[in-house]
Amino acid sequence: MTKIGKHYHIFFTALFALFLSGISLAQGITVDASLTETNIFSGEGVRVDVKVSGQSINSIDRPDIPNVDGLRWLSGSTSTSQNFTYVNGRPSVSYTYGYQFIAQAPGSYTFPPLEVSVNGETYTTSELSFKVLDPKTIDTGEAERSPDIYVRLEPTKENPVVGEQVIADIVLYFKNSVEVSSYQASPGWKAEGFWKEELENRQQARTTSTIINGVRYQRAVLLQYALFPTKSGELTLSPFEVVVQIRQRNQRRDIFSFGLGQERKELSTLPVSVTISPLPELTNATFSGGVGSFSITRSINPTKAYVGESVEVVTTITGQGNIPLIIKPEYEYPETLELYNPQENSTITRANRQIGGTKIFTDILIARNEGSFEIPETKLAYFSPGQNRFQTITLSSLILEAERDPRSTTNTETELRFNVKPITGLANWVDKRDTPLSSNKWIWTLLGLPLLILGGAYGFKTYHDKMNSDTSFARSQKAKEKAFEELKNAEGETDLKTGYNHIQKALIGFIADKLNLPVAGLSIQKLTDALREKSHSTIADEAKRLLDKCDTISYAPNATIEGLESDIEKTRELIKQINKVV
Fold it and tell me: pTM of the full predicted structure?
């Protein structure tokens, strides 16, 4: 008889050994979380690394990232790395997942534990404590550390008046140990409450050396904006975000590195508050809307004209300041002078940290009677921030001599009389003889009517077929009707921005349909240049003026409902003019 007890003993011993080895493998898995920096400046980037290590890892479910107070997660910037090592002669593998965050408001915070599923089992990391520091403490020497790199928004003035130019510099600070290879500004920065103009910036930022709290930094002005406040009170400039590629200079580099070792950092400025003072009261002149330094002139051309001829009154404003926000001056004209289609042209320069240029306003007048007419003297004013007061410029009166064209025909009262005398005596009776049928006009009309109907039907069919087959022809034919429907939506609109948006859609859509251009992706300049090639410059300039006004109506300081109604009518007349020539 064979004994089997010994075999059972060996079998259970082997099974127990496998169980213990499984426990040791499970216990060999570790999950840790760490912060690349625990003292983080507001606007600075920080990375949370989750590291999973072990000798046998079959599956990993990444953790869900919660909302963390003091940090903003950049969800599209997660990184993954893998590393193999040998521990006690056994192979070990580790996976590291990096999650990028941007520090927010200063304070002390805690990063909560994360749950990671490895090989079907759940592991929990420890919570992490960190501080968000105020970048303002860098200059005062109260900062707990000096950052390697950070970015600031630095306005040149903190208490300007309404309309005064404020230069906002986007400045990058970095230590000598940091090498910045490139930067990219995030699009869509908005300066609420300001008219914004981007200045001409260099392709490559120049750096200067500076010492901040005993630490040497390189300072580089990346971008510059000219801001013009459109209202008084405390306004806040929102954070400006910049993405930079950096490398630590002490890192080893060789020709086979292929750009490895570079780090992508997303930096953000702090919001900056600016207090805007209102302009003082002006009583003895008309405010032009200008804040800066300007010269203003006015002229009339020609000074002598025939009745019915057009005369131009041109106002030229040149200087530096908020030239885009200067409004058209309104003059008192004699009743016999009719005003038609005022025009506006501007040339803006954005160099040398200054917005400047020229704005020209043209009033077209027509004299309806002969005589000598005076356009009264006018006082226009602009505010000078340097002198902190209004500067008044007196525009002299203008004289227009209007006379009748001697070449024109004059109908006098005597020429309009009819030399008719009454008929006296007996009436003469005339026998009406029969006329031939061929001389009767109605006969020929009845005979030609079928041909007219047939021709009309053929023309209608041709037109209908072309409307269905020729897209450009159909767009051109429907353009005016579509534009007028859009203008109807603007009529009676109480919200100026919405009303001018309807005007802009009507005019852009009409021009694009008439010229068979794509509506999307067209700038105002390209649209009006295309219109200028098909019509004449006066129509194109008026279209550009209206479109520019629609595009910037959110910042117009003196827009009114009456002005909206007037611009609707001007747009309607302009569409009629374009429809005639295009």
Answer: 0.54
